[in-house]
Amino acid sequence: GRLHALSPLATLGRGYAVARAASGEPLTSVSRFTAGTEFVLQLRDGAVRATAGERLPDAASLTSTPPDLA
């Protein structure tokens, strides 16, 4: 029902993920990441440890196909 649709777990089930610092604090802005930042990525069915690479120019870059993949 409606309550399930609002659940954070339902959001993860739709393909979203939550990045968290080692302290458990959500990382909600690209400004919190530098190359080498270690974090935990929470997915629908578990979590993985990850390390940030370089920042992408902006969010718009995620909505278009990079030239080398076109």
Distance between the termini: 40 Å
Give me the Rg, rounded.
14 Å
Helix content bin = 10-25%
Structural class: alpha+beta
Widest sheet, order of strands = 1-2-3
- Summarize the biggest pleated sheet: 3 strands, antiparallel
The oligomeric state is: single chain
Tally of alpha and pi helices: 2
User: How many strand elements?
Assistant: 3
* C-alpha geometry: globular
Question: What percentage of the residues does DSSP assign to strands (E)?
Answer: 15-25%
Low-confidence stretches: none
Explained architecture:
- The protein is of the alpha+beta class.
- Helices cover 14% and strands 21% of the residues.
- It is built from two helices and three strands, in the order ααβββ.
- It has a three-stranded antiparallel β-sheet, with no helix packed on it.
- A hairpin with a 2-residue loop joins β2 (38-43) and β3 (46-51).
- The protein is globular, with a radius of gyration of 14 Å.
- It starts with a helix and ends in a 19-residue tail after the last strand.
Reconstruct the topology from this structure.
Elements: H1 2-5, H2 8-13, E1 18-20, E2 38-43, E3 46-51
Antiparallel strand pairs: 1-2, 2-3
Provide a short characterization of the protein structure.
The chain has helices at residues 2-5, 8-13, and strands at 18-20, 38-43, 46-51. The chain is an alpha+beta fold and 70 residues long.
